[in-house]
Amino acid sequence: QVQLVESGGGLVQPGGSLRLSCAASGNIGSFNAMGWYRQAPGKQRELVATIASAGSTNYLDAVKGRFTISRDNAKNTVYLQMNSLKPEDTAVYYCNLNLRRLYDYWGQGTQVTVSS
Length: 116
Hints:
By secondary structure, the chain is mainly β. Helix content is about 0%, strand content about 55%.
């Protein structure tokens, strides 16, 4: 089975930083796009950032210049470095792996809270 295990969430003050990690395991191959989504209270889930197997990235406008997505294919791990965090970044963050454009796998979610 495919599993995505997230870590790195927590409570941080505005302007602070967090680094999220998501380790994937199972029969997933090597050429899948991965990404991070988030869902804030009272809002629908939104795409935060994606990264293709070759390394190209895309970001939600609200996080451009502050967040960086990266991946380590040897470790089957994707990261989200979050800097200059704002209260509006508060959400549950979910790791996603899109397998061969056919299947979506999700992490368990990790809470990020930005508050003074």
